[in-house]
Amino acid sequence: MATIEDVAKLAGLSRTTVSRVINDQPYVTEEKRQRIIQAMNDLGYVPNSSARRLRSQRTETIAVLLPRLTNPFFGNLIEAMEEKASEWGYQVIVCQTHDSKKKEMDYLQLLKTKQVDGIIMASLVNDWEVVEPYLESGPIVFCNEYMDESCIPMVHMDHKQAAYEATVHLLEQGCKQIAYVTGGPESHLSKERRKGFTSALSEYNLPFIEDMTIDWAMDVSDGQKVFHMISNEFTQVDGIFTGSDEVAAGLIYEAASSDWRIPDDLAVVGFDNQMLSLLMVPSVTTIEQPVKQMADKTVEVLIQQLLHPGTLPAQKYVFPHQLLIRNSTKRKKLSIQ
Amino acid sequence: MATIEDVAKLAGLSRTTVSRVINDQPYVTEEKRQRIIQAMNDLGYVPNSSARRLRSQRTETIAVLLPRLTNPFFGNLIEAMEEKASEWGYQVIVCQTHDSKKKEMDYLQLLKTKQVDGIIMASLVNDWEVVEPYLESGPIVFCNEYMDESCIPMVHMDHKQAAYEATVHLLEQGCKQIAYVTGGPESHLSKERRKGFTSALSEYNLPFIEDMTIDWAMDVSDGQKVFHMISNEFTQVDGIFTGSDEVAAGLIYEAASSDWRIPDDLAVVGFDNQMLSLLMVPSVTTIEQPVKQMADKTVEVLIQQLLHPGTLPAQKYVFPHQLLIRNSTKRKKLSIQ
DNA sequence: TTGTACGCGTTATCAA
DNA sequence: TTGATAACGCGTACAA
């Protein structure tokens, strides 16, 4: 492994001069610059990143915390983040918390130990008071998840409003008994969604029925289970608000081999507008999130803070969503009425 | 930022002793150990990772190169890899090459610059001769992709055999004109698949027709385009071998709004057994890959090399696949015959 | 325009 | 059982 010292010796110059060439600094004669470049090539020299990090106190690496990559929403998110970060010369470390408080804390340690310059939290299961101290070690930005009491930049959409709109849509289709199906931990985000759901209900003078709430549904197979629960125990349910397209898909898949008709017996809305939701038969009404824009903005905001600390207010960046009405809720009965 | 020096001073001991405590080394009195632990807590001391890296020449980080995370196969792959790596205390850097030779090389540089200890290549677009020199800087393991001329560990399944079986299945269903649809660069892997495809054809005395080959289909929307090409230009086609479930899904989706019946007019096989392939109507016949096992083995092999260099032969680990026959190829006509 | 010398924070060696 | 000291490889005041 050739070091800067080796290059200097071979070129008959000092480490300093070599360093200047490496970092494109002025005050080096063209002739010597060439001699050094030659020497670097001859030796196959590459600057040692660990030494640079120690010296500069910067790693040019960020960590992205998220629950799990299996969820395509996060897959898309990190894909866009990696691309954006790479444009700025930053590496991205993937950190799957699996909604575990401990794992989330472990990954936050990356900031303290200086393995990363900053952190994006798209997973948030710990309370703010335990996260906050890490801010001393570097910037943190929330993406998707959010928390009012914190004072850091947040990039997300209005989940409350989105849930509200989806629920109103179900009600407009004539649903009288809507089940609320969600998954993952009780995060601030999921609370917001629930608020939107209930506020739509109360607008239609309907109560929120705790019995018709399921809080463990995260993927397709959970969706299948949900359908069986409903068709066995809650036969009066005629609409479902779902926190994910996967759950909605599992539900619809299972309904196909029953005598329940979707949307007429059961209207279903998903969330995220995954490819899946378009391809299902019937296609799934869902909420479109501007994933790429949110990812780009998040990385931008974080890197901005790294490059120019303290110049950015702890702003909220709220992105627009869109309710995509598809066949899983379009009731024919109604259009005839 | 407290350093080891600060801790030493506060505890009234030397850096060396503190270092011993940090690294759980013997030869420290219990009393002094406690004093040091106390001091560390008081100062909120955390060892600086950059300094450790420089000193130890190890980063405890690996890079995973892959084409893109949008493809759920790679999403699942890296999810499993991150989990496994995390068990060993290793960080994972995501590197999306987008099938670009340049990006692939750029990411390989991480090894040279000592930003990572080792690399997993699940993307492989460069020739072996340009990849090989990087082996000097650390171990590389192939996953999914492979290359006979190389001499490093490879973890994958038998794509040739898988493609062969899928094609034979189409032929058994009575297909006479099978289109070959693939995407991405001409990798060794895709060549293997094609070999399997052609060898099945020739076994049934059918020629490989270059005209009925499409090499740019990678996702759902490409699948839709493919269907239109076929229904407009190649109406004689009655079966399709597809390199991905996404393409198969797009094709099937588009066929639904035409007068083509699947599988009777057109039988379709996918690849990877994504959730999607099960949920489509009709469900998609596909090849199941043992993603998690492959991911685990790959990480295991790489870390093995990091911990005990030179103890492992450059073996191939070939995992079994499985042809899952579903409705997109099960012809009713035939079962009556 | 170039070089000397120090420090970034750790750990390993060796002597006490 | 403990500590002084020398690396690890690089960047940068400061001096020349």
Top CATH class of the largest domain in chain A: Alpha Beta
Quaternary organisation of the protein chains: homodimer
Please give the count of helices of chain A.
Answer: 14
Number of strands of chain A: 12
Would you identify the regions of chain A where 5 or more consecutive residues have pLDDT less than 50?
none
CATH superfamily of the largest domain in chain A: Response regulator
- Mean pLDDT across the residues of chain A is 93
Q: Of all protein chain pairs, which has the greatest interface, and how many residues does each chain bring to it?
A: A-B, 45 and 45 residues
> In terms of structural class, how would the helical and strand content of chain A be classed?
alpha/beta
Protein name (chains A, B): LacI family transcriptional regulator
Pfam families (chains A, B): LacI, Peripla_BP_1
InterPro entries (chains A, B): HTH_LacI (IPR000843), Lambda_DNA-bd_dom_sf (IPR010982), Peripla_BP/Lac1_sug-bd_dom (IPR001761), Peripla_BP_I (IPR028082)
Domain HTH lacI-type (chains A, B): 2-56
What would you say this structure looks like, in words?
Chain A has 337 residues and is α/β, with parallel strands linked by helices. The first copy, chain A, folds into 3 domains: 4-55, lambda repressor-like DNA-binding domains (434 Repressor (Amino-terminal Domain), Orthogonal Bundle); 59-157 and 291-320, 3-Layer(aba) Sandwich (Rossmann fold); 159-289, Rossmann fold (3-Layer(aba) Sandwich), CATH 3.40.50.2300. In chain A, 45% of the residues lie in helices and 14% in strands. Chain A contains 14 helices and 12 strands. Chain A has helices at residues 4-11, 15-22, 30-43, 49-56, 72-87, 101-112, 128-131, 159-172, 188-203, 220-233, 245-256, 275-279, 291-307, 332-336; strands at 61-66, 91-96, 118-121, 140-143, 154-157, 178-181, 213-214, 239-242, 267-269, 286-288, 316-319, 322-324. In chain A, strands 2-1-3-4-5-11 form a 6-stranded parallel β-sheet, with helices on both faces. The first copy, chain A, is elongated and about 85 Å long. Chain A starts with a helix and ends with a helix. The mean pLDDT of chain A is 93. The A-B interface holds A 46-51, 53-54, 57, 59, 61, 68-70, 72, 75-76, 78-79, 82-83, 86, 91-96, 109-110, 112-115, 220, 246, 249, 253, 256, 275-276, 278-281 and B 46-51, 53-54, 57, 59, 61, 68-70, 72, 75-76, 78-79, 82-83, 86, 91-96, 109-110, 112-115, 220, 246, 249, 253, 256, 275-276, 278-281. Chain A binds a DNA duplex (16 and 16 nucleotides) through residues 1, 3-5, 13-17, 19-20, 22-23, 26-29, 32, 47-48, 50-57.
